[in-house]
Amino acid sequence: MAAHERGRAIYNFRCYYCHGYSGNAKTLAATFLTPSPRDFSTTSPATLSRKTMLMTVAHGSAGTAMKAFENTLTEEEIALVVDFVRTEFMERKAENTRYHTPENGWPDHEKKYAPAFPFARGDIPIDTPWESLSVEQQQGKRVFMHSCISCHDRAKVLDEGVIWDPRPVSYPRNSYSHRADGRADTVTGATPYAEHDMTLQIADLTLLEKEGEGLWLANCAFCHAADGTGKNWIGSFLEPHPRNLTDEGFMSGMTRERLRHSIREGLPGTTMPAWKSVLSEPQLEAVMAYISRAFHPVAGITGGN
């Protein structure tokens, strides 16, 4: 029983975001992933062996969003979470941890919020024309927009609209920190992360380095921080942490070939993806030129003209 609960704690911290609290992969994140995360609630133990699951959690699954956890979880923790999934979802068909409980502020949830369920579950797209909805569905949409949308987001829509443009910003403010030291920075007096989101002011960047700066801020700074340290809000959550490109001990041994391979092919067992299908060869050269100029000189890289 204790082992099962330890597995539950690992799953609820590491896995629910894509696979869902009930193991059915009905999450907002899952709607953005192709192929979709595995639905354990409809998977039989006979068709998916424990050995295969252990290997997948440890080493990831190529061509999917399933990352490798061998550098994040111990062998014991991997076994615990695999056994939890097999018992809780694949065998018992249980729902794991419920969120909509009276203790969490959701009394009489199944009845009180029932009209909103079709919108939360994606049965009815949230942007369905108002006049096409029945009176009951209109009431359900009102409930959804008032009480559910902050967590269920847009649920399902007919028209995705313009894809939002992410940018590297440290959140939250108001002195909150999950770090033990709770240190506030001297720049904003708000968080220990904001100082790392500030673009470095470097005079006389070459055209190649300037192009690299723009590519860095648009693609790399979200995890590595604008200043290359990986000490921003997002970077502090990732395990292992994004590489600190200002670290003398590490970067002194960096070469052009090694850096190019890491960016182009990604790093297995980390959150560093392969950029070869996103950035062109000239763009890779520009990013490397900026890294060498802004964070630490890299052998074999010149800044261009």
- Overall morphology: globular
The CATH homologous superfamily of the largest domain corresponds to Cytochrome c-like domain
Gyration radius, rounded: 23 Å
* First-residue to last-residue Cα separation: 65 Å
How would a crystallographer describe the biggest sheet? none
Give the domain tally: 3
In N-to-C order, the SSE pattern is HHHHHHHHHHHH
Number of helices: 12
**Would you state the CATH class of the largest domain?**
Mainly Alpha
In the predicted model, the low-confidence regions spanning at least 5 consecutive residues are 185-189
Helix content: 25-40%
The oligomeric state of the chains shown is: single chain
Query: Class by helix and strand content?
Result: mainly alpha
- Give the CATH architecture of the largest domain: Orthogonal Bundle
Strand element count = 0
Q: Give average pLDDT, whole number.
A: 88
Question: In what range is the share of β-strand residues?
Answer: under 5%
Q: Remind me, CATH topology of the largest domain?
A: Cytochrome Bc1 Complex, Chain D, domain 2
